[in-house]
């Protein structure tokens, strides 16, 4: 059995259930700027970068009181505060880390979230040393669903795409990893992600608890 050389984790929705934090922060910040924030709008923006979400709301309901960058940073600040207060790993995450480490597989993190939040999460969970690279969409030209962040992660880890696996909770992330030439295991964080995930991922799991050594073979 030939194992892959690297596993790259997404973060939001896969390692931690941060979506409630994002929704709360975005509703608080953009509502205060005069936007009418609805659940439907937030479903549309769920997989976007923070900058793209800010652009989305500005186009719908422009404000003048602060800059778009200041609005974006206000959201990030609030999410960071919420994560520091309540950061709980999703079931199976630590077991997945142990499985990879004991198998000699390199571990990376590639997230659309700001690097500040990536560092907060892995520090709060006490697993910073497990990751050989931690990348945010802020550090590449374009976030997911573009493949840039995965291509950068592969370069940083010095691993070919054919020998790497992405763990993703959303179709957006799966598309990015697939475009980078990687294997993809989907762990959908939302019910409506299941069907598109079946089209994009090599395998779909209900939870990281189900991840086994047999899933970490080169296809």
UniProtKB/TrEMBL annotation:
Coiled coil: none
Organism: Thiomicrorhabdus heinhorstiae
Cofactors named for this entry: Mg(2+)
Keyword Lipid biosynthesis: no
InterPro entries, A to Z: Beta-PGM-like, HAD-like_sf, HAD-SF_hydro_IA, HAD_2, HAD_sf, PGP-like_dom2
Assigned keywords, A-Z: Carbohydrate metabolism, Magnesium, Metal-binding
UniProt similarity note: Belongs to the HAD-like hydrolase superfamily. CbbY/CbbZ/Gph/YieH family.
Taxonomy, superkingdom: Bacteria
Protein name: Hexitol phosphatase HxpB
């Amino acid at each position: 059995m030939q194992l892959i050389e690297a596993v790259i984790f997404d973060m939001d929705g896969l390692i931690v259930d941060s979506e409630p934090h994002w929704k709360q922060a975005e509703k608080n910040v953009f509502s205060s700027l005069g936007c009418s924030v609805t659940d439907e709008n937030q479903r549309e923006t769920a997989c976007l970068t923070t900058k793209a979400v800010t652009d989305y709301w500005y186009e719908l309901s422009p404000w003048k009181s602060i800059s778009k960058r200041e609005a974006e940073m206000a959201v990030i600040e609030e999410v960071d505060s919420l994560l520091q207060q309540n950061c709980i790993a999703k079931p199976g995450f630590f077991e997945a880390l142990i499985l990879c480490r004991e198998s000699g597989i390199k571990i990376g993190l590639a997230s659309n979230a700001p690097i500040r939040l990536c560092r907060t999460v892995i520090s709060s969970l006490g697993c910073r040393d497990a990751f050989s690279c931690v990348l945010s969409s802020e550090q590449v030209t374009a976030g997911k669903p573009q493949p840039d962040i995965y291509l950068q992660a592969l370069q940083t880890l010095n691993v070919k795409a054919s020998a790497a696996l992405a763990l993703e909770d959303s179709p957006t992330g799966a598309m990015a990893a697939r475009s980078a030439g990687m294997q993809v295991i989907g762990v959908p964080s939302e019910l409506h992600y299941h069907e598109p995930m079946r089209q994009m991922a090599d395998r779909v799991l209900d939870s990281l608890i189900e991840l086994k050594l047999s899933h970490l073979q080169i296809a």
